[in-house]
Amino acid sequence: MIEKLAEGVWKLKLSSLWRGAISSNVYYVDLGKKILIDTGSRSERKKLLKDLKDIVEPEQVEALVFTHLHFDHTGNYDLFPNAKLYASKEEIEDFNQDPDGAVLEYEIAEGLKGKLNPVENLELNGIEIIKTPGHTRGSISLWYLKEGILFTGDTLFQRGYGRVDLPTSVPSMLKRSLEKLGGYKRTILAPGH
Q1: 105-146: per-residue pLDDT in tens?
Q2: Cα-atom radius of gyration of the chain, to the nearest Å?
Q3: Which residues have C-beta within 8 Å of that of residue 8, sequence separation ≥ 6?
């Protein structure tokens, strides 16, 4: 299902279960550069491609921005042949130390090797990167001030927040990240699930 959140911003809601995890939401943002925020689980490949083609061809996507590298957010990175892949420098450091622990899925981790770029080097045309460690050390959220949209990955959900018992989680940092996100006067909360 596709939902237009604002001018140039769409939500693709993927909804199946895969290995006990709910597939993540995918967001398409076109603010002069065609960007996907997260790519969902592999189990949703056909649905993602079908829905996305209503707004953009996969070959046109220029950048994939991962809120973190877990498999349910990175599972379809390879559907976008012309896109550069971005994550926070902390997420990339943890991936380089333990790819399987950072992604939680061997095949996807292997495919991401050598392809990740620091999101800090990406110009996002009006979107601010917010470091929100907790769910993972390198988790990020994104703030689109013009429309008041806060993309939170697995840091903050409509009700609650992401788990902090995974290999790269930092439970002691989650409270501060949630407090930081509380300071943004959002109109729309766009979580990972």
Answers
A1: 999 999 999 999 999 999 998 999 999 999 999 999 999 999
A2: 15
A3: 29, 30, 31
